[in-house]
Design goal:
The complex is a heterodimer of chains A (about 350) and B (about 575).
Chain A (H helix, E strand, L loop, with lengths): L6 E10 L2 E11 L4 E5 L6 H9 L6 E6 L2 E2 L12 E2 L11 H11 L4 H14 L15 H13 L5 E5 L7 H18 L2 E6 L2 H7 L2 E6 L2 E6 L1 H6 L4 H6 L4 E11 L2 E6 L2 E5 L6 E8 L5 E2 L7 E13 L3 E8 L2 E8 H4 L7 E7 L4 E3 L2
Parallel strand pairs in A: 3-8, 3-9, 6-7, 7-8
Antiparallel strand pairs in A: 1-2, 1-4, 4-5, 9-10, 11-12, 11-14, 12-13, 14-20, 15-19, 16-17, 16-19, 17-18
Chain B lengths: L5 H30 E2 L2 E2 L2 H5 L4 H34 E2 L3 H7 L8 H12 L4 H8 L9 H4 L1 H26 L3 H9 L4 H29 L3 H5 L6 H8 L8 H31 L11 E2 L2 H30 E3 L7 E3 L2 H8 L1 H33 L6 H9 L6 H15 L12 H26 L2 H9 L4 H12 L1 H16 L3 H6 L8 H9 L5 H27 L11
Parallel strand pairs in B: 3-4
Antiparallel strand pairs in B: 1-2, 5-6
The chains are: A alpha+beta (about 350), B mainly alpha (about 575).
Amino acid sequence: MPIHPAIEVCGVTKRFGAVTALDDVSFSVEPGELFFLLGPSGCGKTTLLRILAGLETPDAGTIRFKGQDVAELPPHERGAPMVFQNYALWPHLNVRDNVAFGLVERKVPKTEIGSRVADALDRVGLKGYGTRLPGQLSGGQQQRVVLARALVLNPPVVLLDEPLSNLDAKLRVEMRAEIEELHTQSRITFIYVTHDQADALSLATRMAVMNAGQVSAIGTPLDLYLRPPNAFCADFLGEANIVEGAARWVEGGRWKVDTAVGVWTVTTPVEPGPAARCLVRPENLQPMAGPADGFNAFEATITGIRMNGPTVTVALESGGLALRATLLTQQGAALHKGQRGLWGVATANTVVLPQ
Amino acid sequence: MRRLRLTTWFPILAVVAFLGVFLMWPLAHVFTRACWDKTGFTLGYLRNLFTNPVQIEAVGMSFLIAACVTVTCTAIAMPLAWLFARRTFPGKVLWSGLLLVPMILPPFVSAVGMKILFSRAGALSTLMMNLGLANGPVDWLGRFPLAGIVLLESLHLFPILYLNLVAALGNIDPSLEEAALNLGASPVRVFRRVTLPLALPGLFAGMVLIFVWSFTELGTPLVFGLRRVLPVMIYDSVSEIGTNPAGYAQVAFVLIISALGFWISKRLIARDRSVATLGRLSVGRKEVPLTRAGTWLATGFLLAVLGLAVLPHLSVILLSISRRWFLTVLPQGWTLEFFGRALNSDLTREAVVNSLGLSLGATVLDLVLGFGIAWLCVRKRVIGGDWLDALSMLPLAVPGLVIAFGYMGCFSGAFPNTLLDPRFNPMILLAVSYSIRRLPYMVRAAHAGLEQVSTTYEEAAANLGASPLRVVWRVTLPLISANLLAGAILCFSFSMLEVSDSLILAQSERFYPITKAIYALIDSLENGVNIASALGVWAMLLLGAGLLWATALLGKRIGQMFRAG
């Protein structure tokens, strides 16, 4: 028997009237992955998740769970429980009945339901909360109940729709760790939709970056961060300085790009042409004592400094270009606005974006 | 891609079939009989309404009553609505509850009380003789029957207009009025130039509703002995329904007037919505407290209106506990025996049992139909859902008189001597007619509930493995149970006191519901009127308790149930 991917999405397209929410989206997810759909609001990621759950019907394309076409299955036969953004905990049922809901529908024997619900509540740290009503719980506790409600079914796939978006900053960090823990323990395939790159970069085994209804890039967080395949991806993940220029010639195995701040050397191959774009992450830009080998250096003026706590963000101007650099606070303490000096980035960290 | 599932098309089919058979068919039948005879299509019978002197008188009288009632209701409801929508004063909550009290009895029962007060041997006549203001007994009702009918119906119907107006005033964005103040208009000018024009559609819609209801009111003129009004003429023509098409023409005419009124009010409300929702801001409205003098004035006005409104009810209560009330100002001798007799005599006991059973049946039917229709429209968004919704609201425009007459006409002919023949056994048709009449309330209640409940709750249930029917059972129904219960209470209470259908459809004593029993008792000898009053008091208590319960469940939204659109 061949081993199928947990989920295959092939050429899925969805229109709402004149708006194309999803345009020929394809990807596949391996069993046990914590796969992210990341993108700005309105990029179609939630629509895609709802299509996986059967709550929307695609206009074209196929969905396969473990090799089986599920496009025609109604929501209640999909077996892919979802963690809703607004929780959707039924206000007329207490915590235990909320969690037991899916088990009751699956006609699991009563005694087994009792023990599985207790176990699931225990796993999310809500032992003893079974008789509370959802309205009596805090946001974080409600979030845990929703997770328990999905995980108690022991499903092959769990769908999460912006699960942390209603929580405050501190709670987000806590819950992020708990979701990771629950994923590791259960080995269930998670599909996680978010617009928050921090969630995706810190949790994902792989992710699909989405833009305007299309998949812009697929890969591991590390790959996509270090070698983004396009400008959207570079800009959406982390912060990016994009320096445009013309790729001119190749000299001794080195590729040269002619930019507004001088001729830069890059280590990635680049086709000679007028429109080459170099990505420099702000944390890779640093002040330099003098020109050095293996660095692309240029003169720049500091136009502003912002303290972030552990780091400072320095706004630079050079040759009409605005650039940002992020330094450790200690490093940036001596800098001041209006200061002119030499700044540089290692050639290895100057990434040329594919055309 | 969406497939039409069994769970969708079966309810659609059931609802359409039910409304088709029990609403559209009788209406079509009425029109056919009114406009067709052996010679083919004819407008002769309808034309007769405007050429035959007796018919002209009846049509004219009906219009006169309706117009007077509408004007009177507006005069009462306008200041009240402004007071309650824009001002605060001591006891406001209590007063706003009390304002619904006049609705708790059909005016035809309070007409009994009215008769005792103003008839030849009644309290007023005796009082004036005792005071030496009159030489002999005066039959005030006989002299001014129109005034009595108009007063009774107005005092009964004004809360409906009041509720519509309060809603219309409440819908006006406060910032629109603030903008007018800000640009230099005095409060009085603001009311005239901004508030009133914006509230006009709601006002007119409510007025149209009052007009239609009083135009088709059967019970009050019947008790007052006014025969030459359209509803009573229709009632009298039921006996010759098979032979004389004149009755059909009258019913068709009433239906045309009602449908026209309903259509106009719907258009007005639609315009009202488009104006009121324009640029709505989240500015809260601050209500201005009344001055001391204003409070006295308002309280006086409320006391006068409510006092007048409950006077007939009070006299019904007095009647029910008095041994003798004849040519005296107040009753002589008190007794509670009539309350017992109201529940013990064969006629009344059967009537109470009949009414309970009929109302229960109607309520269950309405629960199923009302939820089904609202669910199909709000959740399934089926094609033609708007039509289904409009169809379910149609009974608002179709007076009970018309439905009952239509049932007598078509079911007696089509299913003679079966359970669907009202002459043989009217129980099924009575229950169905009650439910059809109250269906709009149930649809609205369910509609409001479904719109408040986020669809995510249902999606989550489907997502966790519940089939569509199970989703409805385990999630949708429990979440909107308060709305459904409130709708059911209203259906039940109003069914208990439905007048026109009961008077027309229940032809033999065995099948009399409460209202028809009361009507039969009024004219019977031996304390019949006291027993009728006692029965009326029981009914008042029931409807009052029902309204209170529904209000407690729905809170402020109770007003929506009685809105025009």
